[in-house]
Amino acid sequence: MTAVAGTMRSRRWTSLLARWETVLVAALLGLVLLGTSLSPFFLTPGNFSNLVAALMEVAIMAMPMTLIVVAGEIDLSVESMAGLSSAVLGYLWAEGVPLQVGIPLVLALGAAGGLLNGLIVARGGLPSLVVTLGTLALFRGMALIVLGPRGVSDFPPAFTQLGFGKVPGTLIPWPFVVFLLIAAVLGIVLHRTWIGRQIFAIGKNAGTARLSGVQVTRIRVSLFVLSGVVAALAGIILTSRLSSARADAAQGMTLTVVTVVLLGGANIFGGSGTIPGVVLAVLAVAVMQNALRLASVTVEVQSIALGLLLILSVVIPNFAHQAKSAVDRIRRGRPPPVGPVAIGEARPE
């Protein structure tokens, strides 16, 4: 009995150590040690606030992106929707529209943009990679038409406080609170509800999910609408944090959003991923960028580091899947396949 209990405990510990989230925790601790060695200001309270605030718009957009990637799709238009939202909010404010009216209109615009993506992908049967690449350019062009090269920066203090203000008595920025709320809600939806189970089923095999009664089209459209609304919210927060609305706001953020989602353990082919993993990935990327910035590393080198991180976040899980498949075959008494078959089996269905 004791031997059985010991074996079960050993398996639990092995399972825990094998989880991608455990790897991310270890990487996060290593990055904290690296940051501490690079700069004496890294562990100061003020730097923590700056570290968190700098990546919050990316973190917020990464939450619905996780659900979309788990469902086997992708949304590359999030940065342009955030920029369009910033431009429209600035235009409305400059025209005398109060923020109490402008903000809901901008969120509705985000829903409309997401609906456009969702309908073309889900009902038109077109690849989300191509569709959202097109709307990436479309939304940015619309932002330039709305606001042009000018910026709007005379927002009231009550609005700008949302972006760079902190929870009273703490150093926690308000956008971080928004991020945690969105992460908690979507984490519950993905991991504790029937909706989440259906999202995983769609990502693993959409055809089988449809035959099982899952409303594949409706869920896909809903996920893109959610992504559009949250991207618009990120654009509002970015406008508040910078105290300025510009058509080029959030430019280049899509790469970082996709990086943190894949680094968090979401499979690029769909069917797997966790919200806690993406939250850890957000913190890891924020710590890495902050440490490099404090060490006066150039923007070009930071971009290289982010690109390498994106490649590793795809390559490492793929190799891990191949190794696991090989071990399983050996345990079943079958030799691992070689050549193109092995490569094909490494890809999730």
Give a written overview of the molecule.
There is one protein chain. The chain is mainly alpha-helical. It has 2 domains: 27-32 and 40-296, ABC transporter involved in vitamin B12 uptake, BtuC (Orthogonal Bundle); 303-349. It is built from 16 helices and no strands. The chain has helices at residues 2-18, 20-38, 45-53, 56-70, 78-94, 99-123, 128-147, 157-164, 174-192, 194-204, 206-211, 216-242, 253-263, 275-294, 299-331, 340-346. The radius of gyration is 22 Å and the shape is globular.
Q: Any key phrases for this structure?
A:
ABC transporter involved in vitamin B12 uptake, BtuC; disordered C terminus; disordered N terminus; 2 domains; 349 residues
Describe the secondary structure blueprint for this structure.
Blueprint: H1 2-18, H2 20-38, H3 45-53, H4 56-70, H5 78-94, H6 99-123, H7 128-147, H8 157-164, H9 174-192, H10 194-204, H11 206-211, H12 216-242, H13 253-263, H14 275-294, H15 299-331, H16 340-346
Helix pairs in contact: 2-14, 4-9, 4-10, 4-12, 4-13, 4-14, 5-6, 5-7, 5-12, 6-7, 6-12, 8-12, 9-10, 13-14, 13-15, 15-16
Head-to-tail CA distance between termini: 39 Å
Residue-averaged pLDDT, rounded? 88
Stretches with pLDDT under 50, minimum 5 residues: 3-8, 340-349
Write down the CATH class of the largest domain. Answer: Mainly Alpha
* Shape estimate: globular
Query: What pattern of helices and strands is seen along the backbone?
Result: HHHHHHHHHHHHHHHH
Q: What class would the helix/strand composition place it in?
A: mainly alpha
